[in-house]
Write a structure and sequence with these properties.
heterotrimer; B: mainly beta; 2 domains; five-stranded mixed barrel; three-stranded antiparallel beta sheet; globular; C: alpha/beta; Peroxisomal Thiolase, Chain A, domain 1; four-stranded mixed beta sheet; 11 strands; 36% helix
Chain lengths: 250, 115, 390
């Protein structure tokens, strides 16, 4: 009789309520559907995260790299109680948010990753994630950190998060901030929007498949100019440049 | 000690200025610094207001209510508001308090309350 | 005084540019030289507001003139807040009209996105009065918010009118390759839908997210020259016919009537007088819509519509391309972008394109007289330009 190694290595997941899909109208009139991704959809999502590991701007590289590992961990059953929500516009992947449940009372927000700029998709996605923790999982608070200044302004400042600096966040031990149920209720009317149920045709389109984003964030078109703009005459400040040119410059 | 915001009165023609101007805007005849200081009244009428959400980095609050008030003597002043539901034309009373802190310095200015 | 013509134009995308500030200034200069078929200029003016504070580069014009290998031509950096661009064009005009130079290059450039959004807001807020406005946390959006509230109260302008300006300008920008935002927003998305509060949150109420222009990087260039030089250049004769400038009180609260933009009114009056045209002669205009309310207010103050009726003309579609007086066919500051120092030159660039008949899908038919209004501070320093196609 062989040992069931897989059973030993897998964490035991708590049964968590599923996220009921919702939809919202964006500034350009298009409709976006936010739903929980199934485990077997992760391989369809990973190829859209990978290119951003090489975009060294706005912390896309570290967010994409960490998110990639979190998605893989979810897919291969190596993290406990993680969830992944995807936002799609006409089937196209617009944003990914993920996190996990630490305990019945405490949630841990991982990342908010937006592939469609200019329509406040990130704001919608983040608010939806908070709704999942507070309203659906019925937790008392969610611990959050921000890698980029944009995230900091949108979440820590706009939601007026409380400091929980004595609690190291799972994303590298940085001081955590907390969204409590009270703060969430205060923000509910303006920041947490979207409607349910999602109309049949919209949900069907979203579930049919995760389509590639049409205009994802990209690296600078002129790498040498970008290094000059970082005041670097050695042109070595862009890791991507070295990677692509195999260690040589042009 | 009650603090005031000061207007500047031209010594030649008596015109009140807030904020300070080097040359009197009415007679233009003054010598340098030929102004008397006059404390501004604290009562006035709210002319317009806004709630600002995108604050400069010095502020820890989420929003800031700002307004332009026409004081009893006709001079107008910009100030912060500590009023729940401001309305144009509302009667307000001002008090000089800390309105901004930048690193180590505290700045004093008028905060208006509902009368 | 000699007549002054536009010999060449150039522009970058107004978006987020990962180039050094000097190159954002030099690229449109290069394009303009190629456009005019020129190799040298007599003098260079560079309009820029944030070089020192945001980009760590003071004396920008001195850097640009060398970067473009145009030394030993003289060069000056012109700073007039958000009206730096038009002010620099004004300096270029005076240099040629006075007989001092024959060919002058005017560049406007800004790289605001090198700083984070909080720093960019703080930087623009330094335009306000330090003791009477800045210490209260007043920023330009706050001043615009207070102005909008009064306008709504006095003339019945509504949030819907503001949204209509944004939608119109975004639509125009869809046909403008250089525009910062290519987002065909709808009134439903930003105002009517239940999600409008997240799509379009308040910035300085009553102004919302889509009422405020974006923070952009960008550069634009105009080469001005005498009629003699124009003879050798195979381009339409577009004359810089009128310039006007006026100032108003520094503190917004000291304005006589806080709903009036007297500096706009006077600058426009001077510009039309000098050009010998009336507001009703204008075929196309680029107004300074850093906040959507300003497009409405300026359209009245310059004389296109009666005071208080700008929003009614907007409703009737008179300011669309194809309407009575198309305003901001480029997308305006709202959708084309607002790299502060470059804006004034960018506005002039669009007008020249229109008068030359090279504006493609956003061409205003038979454009003959073009007008720009470049608004410095919050209405306390305004420069207006009038161009005529000969």
């Amino acid at each position: 009789m062989s040992v069931d190694l897989e059973k030993i290595l897998r964490p035991v997941d708590t049964p968590l309520p599923k996220f009921p899909a919702k939809y919202m109208t964006l500034a350009n009139g298009q409709e976006m559907v936010v739903r929980q991704a199934e485990r077997d959809e992760i391989p369809d999502i990973l190829p859209h995260v990978e290119p951003l590991i090489h975009v060294e701007r706005d912390f896309y590289n570290i967010v994409a790299a960490r998110l990639y590992s979190e998605l893989l961990a979810y897919y291969t059953y190596r993290v406990q109680d993680e969830y992944v929500l995807v936002a799609q516009i006409d089937g196209e992947l617009a944003a990914i948010v993920n996190g996990r449940s630490v305990s019945p009372d405490v949630g841990m927000s991982y990342h908010t990753f937006s592939l469609r700029r200019g329509l406040r998709v990130g704001a919608h996605a983040f608010a939806t994630k908070m709704e999942y923790h507070i309203d659906i999982l019925k937790q008392k608070e969610v611990l959050i950190v921000a890698e980029s200044g944009i995230g900091f302004r949108r979440w820590m400042i706009e939601y007026n998060l409380e400091k929980r600096f004595h609690i190291p966040h799972e994303l590298g031990g940085c001081p955590s901030w907390s969204l409590t149920k009270e703060l969430f209720d205060k923000a509910r009317n303006t920041l947490v929007v979207g409607r349910r149920p999602v109309p049949e045709h919209l949900l069907a389109k979203a579930k049919a498949g995760i389509l590639p984003p049409s205009d994802p964030p990209k690296g600078p078109e002129d790498l040498l100019a970008a290094t000059r703009s970082m005041l670097d005459s050695t042109a070595t400040s862009l890791i991507e440049m070295r990677r692509k040119q195999g260690g040589k410059i042009q | 000690m009650e603090l005031n915001i000061y207007a500047y009165k031209c010594k030649r023609c008596g015109e009140l200025h807030y904020p300070y101007k080097t040359i009197c805007k009415k007679c233009g005849e003054n010598d340098h610094n030929e102004f008397d200081i006059v404390p501004l009244p604290k009562k006035g009428k709210l002319l317009t207001f806004t709630t600002l959400y995108t604050l400069p980095s010095d502020y820890e609050v989420v929003t800031l209510a700002l307004g332009i008030v026409e004081l009893e003597n006709g001079i107008r002043i910009t100030g912060q508001l500590d009023i729940k539901n401001p309305k144009i034309g509302m009667k307000v009373n001002g008090k000089v308090e800390v309105v901004r802190k930048d690193l180590y310095k505290k700045h004093l200015g008028m905060i208006f309350y509902k009368e | 005084m000699r007549e002054v013509y536009v010999a060449g134009i150039g522009i970058t995308s107004f978006s987020r540019l990962e180039y050094p500030l000097v190159e954002i200034a030099a690229y449109p200069g290069l394009m303009a030289l190629r456009d005019a078929g020129l190799k040298k200029v007599d003098h260079l003016y560079v309009a820029n507001m944030g070089g020192g504070r945001i980009n760590g580069q003071t004396g920008l014009a001195s850097a640009v003139v060398d970067h473009m290998s145009l030394t030993p031509a003289g060069a000056e950096t012109i700073e007039n807040g958000p009206a730096s661009g038009a002010s620099a064009i004004k300096q270029g005009y005076m240099a040629i009209a006075s007989g001092m130079h024959d060919v002058v290059m005017v560049i406007g450039a800004e790289r605001m996105r090198e700083a984070n959004p909080l720093e960019a807001t703080d930087f623009v807020a330094t335009l306000t009065h330090p003791q009477a406005e800045y210490i209260y946390g007043v920023t330009l959006p706050a001043l615009a918010g207070m102005f909008t509230r009064l306008y709504m109260e006095k003339y019945g302008v509504t949030a819907r009118h503001l949204a209509m300006v944004a939608v119109k300008n975004h639509k125009n920008a869809m046909d403008n390759f250089y525009a910062h935002l290519h987002e065909d927003i709808t009134i439903e998305g930003i105002l009517d839908s239940p999600e409008a509060s997240t799509n379009n949150p308040y910035v300085a109420d009553p102004l919302r997210f889509y009422d405020v222009c974006p923070v952009s990087d960008g550069g634009a260039c105009l080469i001005l020259a005498t009629a003699e030089v124009m003879k050798k250049i195979n381009k339409p004769m577009i004359r810089l016919a009128g310039i006007g400038q006026a100032t108003d009180t520094h503190c917004v609260h000291e304005r006589k009537d806080p709903t009036e933009l007297l500096a706009v009114r006077e600058a426009a009056r001077q510009s039309f007088k000098m050009a010998g045209v009336k507001p009703s002669d204008v075929s196309v205009a680029e107004l300074h819509d850093a906040f959507t309310i300003l497009e409405i207010a300026e359209s009245e103050e310059v004389g296109f519509f009666k005071k208080g009726e700008g929003h009614l003309a907007l409703e009737r579609g008179e300011t669309q391309i194809g309407g009575k007086i198309p305003i901001n066919p480029s997308g305006g500051l709202k959708a084309k972008g607002h790299p502060v120092g470059a804006t004034g030159v960018g506005q002039a660039h669009e007008i020249v394109l229109q008068l030359r008949g090279e504006a493609g899908k956003r061409q205003v038919k038979n454009a003959k007289v073009g007008f720009t209004c470049n608004f410095g501070g919050f209405g306390n320093n305004v420069v207006c330009l009038t161009f005529i196609k000969e």
